[in-house]
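Hi all, long-time lurker, first post. I run a small reading group and we've been trying to get comfortable going from sequence to structure in the token notation. Rather than ask abstract questions, I figured I'd post a concrete chain and ask someone more experienced to write out its structure so we can walk through it together at our next meeting. Sequence below, copied exactly:
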Amino acid sequence: MRVLLELLRIIFIFALLGGVAWLIVGKVYAINPETQKYQWIGAIGIYTLLFVLYRHRLQFSGWYKGKGRQKLSKKASLTLICLSVLLLAMPIMIGFFQA
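-- Answer (accepted) --
Happy to help. Here is the structure in token form:
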């Protein structure tokens, strides 16, 4: 039962935080019509950041208390954060160079 509750919690967190982040980032992408074609790249960046946040903070405050709960390594975290920032900036860069 705890596993099911934790899965529902993950879905809720990703939907809620991802939706709020998307509202903010979507307004930035709406400035240029060229960037709107590539918004999906920014969405991948948002969910990558949420994954890192979950693995570092949120998994330890949930219902699941079993094995396999560990933080990402510093190298993996830094790589994923840099990748997600690049993914968030990529639609803007593409729109800038196509205009």
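A couple of things your group might point at:
The helical segments are 2-29, 33-36, 39-56, 74-98.
The two ends are 53 Å apart (CA to CA).
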